[in-house]
Amino acid sequence: MIKEPPLLTVRRNFPRPPRALIEKLKGAQTGHIADARMGRAALDHRIKPVDPACSQFVGPALTCQPGADDNLAILAALALAEPGDVIVAAADAFSSTAVVGDNVSMMAKNKGVVAIVIDGMARDTYGIVPAGLPVFSRGITPNSCVKSGPGRVGLPVVCGGAAIAPGDVVLGDRDGVVVIPQLQLEAVVSQLDEIRRLEEEAQAKIRAGLTHPPSIDALLRSDKVHYLD
């Protein structure tokens, strides 16, 4: 027989990245972070902002795993959050009930949390939007969940198909959410200026009339292309 688990398993203390490094990521685009991580950094494409006009955020992850149809661990994460944290909830991609609504969002804003990211559903958009806190979810449903546990807080999770450890940096915008493992943070930050420079150079050429990359012309002239006409 399996022993009855505790309602919550919590790791309260974990290292967060230096605030100065996180500040350097403010305003960065999720696509630029993905480029710095070899094109692979994003959570599932269905996890999008409830309000696209309120979607820009960056901060260290306070992870939790409430499981499907339950938000006890999310409420515990609220109590344990530090200002600047992002609550990341692995809700098993459950779509029948919401695990975050307007009350949770408003309490998170009061606590200094900068965003909530859930691999599940949200509700109460009429309250979430004016609260002004970025909330990312798989979708919206009016259905409500229970608060029964068991759940985990402050431990590694898989959210939206991405492995996220507490203290990893998550960043969001209209396009979605990306994650930067804490051990890769300095390397990603060091690449951003160059990525932005190259992007601006490319877009300046496009605004000047460029219709396709010059490398395609070279490819089309090479013996690597077989023409049928």
What does this molecule look like?
By secondary structure, this protein is an alpha/beta fold. The protein has a single domain (8-196), classed as Ribonuclease E inhibitor RraA/RraA-like (Glucose Oxidase, domain 1). The chain has seven helices and 14 strands. The chain has helices at 19-23, 30-36, 72-80, 102-111, 125-131, 185-207, 214-221; strands at 8-10, 48-49, 57-65, 86-89, 98-100, 115-118, 121-122, 135-137, 139-140, 151-153, 157-159, 162-164, 169-173, 176-180. Strands 1, 2, 3, 4, 6, 8, 10, 13 and 14 form a nine-stranded mixed β-sheet that branches. 40% of the residues are buried.
CATH architecture annotation name: 3-Layer(bba) Sandwich
Q: How would you sum up the major sheet? A: 9 strands, mixed
Number of separate helices: 7
Shape: elongated
- Please trace the helix and strand order, writing H or E for each element: EHHEEHEEHEEHEEEEEEEHH
Number of domains: 1
CATH topology (level 3) name: Glucose Oxidase, domain 1
Within CATH, the superfamily carries the name: Ribonuclease E inhibitor RraA/RraA-like
DSSP E strands, number: 14
* Rg over alpha carbons: 20 Å
Give the N-terminus to C-terminus distance in angstroms: 72 Å
Fraction of residues in β-strands: 15-25%
Average residue pLDDT: 96
Low-confidence stretches: none
Approximate helicity band: 25-40%
